[in-house]
Amino acid sequence: MSLARRGRSLSALGLLLAGGIGIISSTQTWLTVVRTDAGESILVPGADAMALLAPLSLAVLAIGAALTLVGLVLRYVFAALALLSGVLLAWWTAEILFTAPLSAVAPTVTEITGLAGSETVAGMISTIEPSAWPVLALIGWAVQIVAAVFALVTARHWKRGGRRFQTSAATHDDHEGPVDAIDSWDDLSRGSDPTR
What we know:
With 196 residues, the chain is mostly helical. It folds into two domains: 7-162, Butyryl-CoA Dehydrogenase, subunit A, domain 3; 166-196, no CATH class. 59% of the residues lie in helices and 9% in strands. It has eight helices and three strands. A hairpin with a 6-residue loop joins strand 1 (29-35) and strand 2. The chain is elongated, with a radius of gyration of 26 Å.
């Protein structure tokens, strides 16, 4: 089986993996705030560092699952959405990882210390140290982007959905000769009314 024909399963698997990493990382510590007042360090989880982390990760999981069921047009729509969200998530994660902006930790610091205002919060922060979780999330977003691009490239070569969900259009009108009880039951199974 060619790589293009396995596009559905590979793309869905990549998106599900990325979404799963995003959901797990949203509950883990992304940033550690070391305080100037020698107080206990403040741990900032991913969901607090990036407000859209959990919702977008859930959306990626949903897209990954839906991608296995939809037709050609929706494959392209869902793959494009996955690509867009992957690029945004990667951008925001890289910003948090490499610049550790005050905005990523300020709400958590304010909640724990009761101090508000950007200058006040900045004054009590000695350093902001990222953990390994933003790195793992960034890898997940890279997988998501590759999976979305792969879906866009291979979508037209995917097999159609299973036939067990499709019904035959044939009814008793298509049969020649008299209609018996079995034909009538078959017509009912197909959604046709054999009495008409």
